[in-house]
Amino acid sequence: MSTLTLTIARLGAQGDGIAETEAGPVYAPFTLPGESAALAVNKSQGTLISLREASPDRVEPHCRHFGPDGQNGTCGGCTLQHAADGLYQTFKRDLVINALKSKGLKPDVAPLITAQPGERRRAVFTARKTEKDLLLGFNQAESHHIVAISECPVTSPGIVSRLATIGKIGAAMAVNAEPFRITVLETLSGLDLSVDGIKGFGDRERRRTVETVLGERGIARVSLNGEIIVEPTKPVIEFGGVSVSPPPGGFTQATLAAEEAMAALVLDHIGKAKRVADLFAGSGTFALRIARKARVHAVEGEDKALKALDFSARNTQGLKPVTIEKRDLFRRPLMAQELKVYDAIVFDPPRAGADVQCQEIARSGVKKIVAVSCNPTTLARDLAILVAAGYRITSVTPIDQFLWSAHVEAVATLEK
Questions:
Q1: Which CDD domains match (predicted)?
Q2: Could you count the other beta carbons within 10 Å of the beta carbon of residue 241?
């Protein structure tokens, strides 16, 4: 390891500052372009020792747990709290632009739809039982060290204000000192806690968990590895005014604001389409909204999510017909011939994208397509498949819902 004073040239895809040296790039977290920084360098990794010259785009972090000197260690939840809004928003938009360029795509990319503090309704905490208490927080970047948090400007006040309660429930569930995860979703009827990573959970821990939850207010459900342990009330969220009870640990968009922005783009593009296929439909984020104006065929590989969607569709008045199909679209995509009957297709796959499904969409000739993505790299690959088949990208909109991180969502619309 050596100590070097280097100038930061740019931000990397993960939000680290990058300095160029004769030996290759050095990646330095918590630095910004234009800064001169003293770094402890080990191969390609640089640890910030001090700033010799700070960027005018550097701002005070919003949280005491952020940065190299964060309280209890550096929380790994955020990477860019030290960047001014303009630099940060340009960085996120450029992630999408550069991914598209890498596939030869140069559509206009709209300004970033921004996220605000306190919007995150879903957070994944790491927990570990100690001799005295429960350690609850986020892992330090690239480490198993848990940074116990007392605040989080990203997460909703409804979750942050209940950290003590979440910790109490986690302590009741813990079997040993092995770390485990608690995913917390803020719903309209209370917090939904989905726990995984605990082994050897027995009757004693179950009774203790039930007693603890029933002694607290505002907890809708607690589950372990997908099994409901106690459910004082059904957790409820709404997709465009349609009430849904998602399955334990089921996917939901991290912020309501981002979800509504995505949905508005989807609905605007499909326009007056009468029959729509919603692929990777989850619990109905888009399908149930679309059903207010068009017939929807919702396809999803996860059985519990699909059942939640179906139940809500059947029990909500005023919706157009919604049909469902359980299908692994990675192994068995909807074929071009099956897709031809639709006026529009919406797809929102996991990070791996939907290349196999896109090849069938490309052959289908369906006029309008909306691609929703949490990974610019796989989005660019999927869009390139469609463009090669004669589709035209009409809009690309980056959307931020993981504030001060290097993650960005995007919605792309296409026409044949």
A1: AdoMet_MTases
A2: 10
Which residues touch 308 (CB under 8 Å, ≥6 apart)? Answer: 244, 245, 246, 247, 250, 283, 284
How much is the pLDDT for 353? 96
Contacts of 311 (CB under 8 A, 6+ apart): 245
* Active site annotation includes 63: no
The C-alpha atoms of residue 58 and residue 17 are separated, in whole angstroms, by 12
CB-based burial label for 154 (10 Å; 0-12, 13-18, 19+): buried
Which residue is associated with the tokens 């895809």? 13
Q: Tokens for 216, please give them.
A: 């607290």
CB 219 within 8 A of CB 246: no
pLDDT at 38 (0 to 100): 96
**What pTM did the predictor assign?**
0.94
* pLDDT tens sequence across 77-132: 899 999 999 999 999 999 999 999 999 999 999 999 999 999 999 999 999 999 88
Catalytic: which of 63, 78, 358, 374?
Answer: 374
Tell me what pLDDT residue 142 has.
76
Cβ atoms 196, 248 nearer than 8 A: no
Q: Which residue is associated with the tokens 């360029």?
A: 101
**Binding site per annotation, positions:** 253, 280, 300, 348
d(CA 383, CA 83): 31
Cα-Cα-Cα-Cα dihedral sign, residues 280, 283, 286, 291 = positive
For the chain, what's the residue count? 416
Angle of helix 85-101 relative to helix 376-388, nearest 10 degrees, comes to 40
Task: Please check whether residue 237 is in contact with residue 191, taking contact to mean a CB–CB distance below 8 angstroms.
Answer: no
The answer to whether 301 touches 328, Cβ cutoff 8 Å, is yes
258 Ramachandran zone, left/alpha/beta (phi>0; psi -120 to 50): alpha
Strand 2-7 versus strand 36-42 pairing type = antiparallel
Q: What single string gives the DSSP state of each residue in 268-283?
A: HHHTT-SEEEEES-TT
The C-alpha atoms of residue 128 and residue 76 are separated, in whole angstroms, by 16
* Secondary structure of residue 212 in the 3-state scheme: helix
What whole-number distance in Å separates Cα of residue 190 and Cα of residue 185?
A: 9
* Residues annotated within a binding site for S-adenosyl-L-methionine: 253, 280, 300, 348
Q: Give the CA-trace dihedral at 244, 245, 246, 247, to 10 degrees.
A: -150
Give residue 117's Cα distance to chain centre.
15
Task: Enter the tokens of residue 262.
Answer: 């995505």
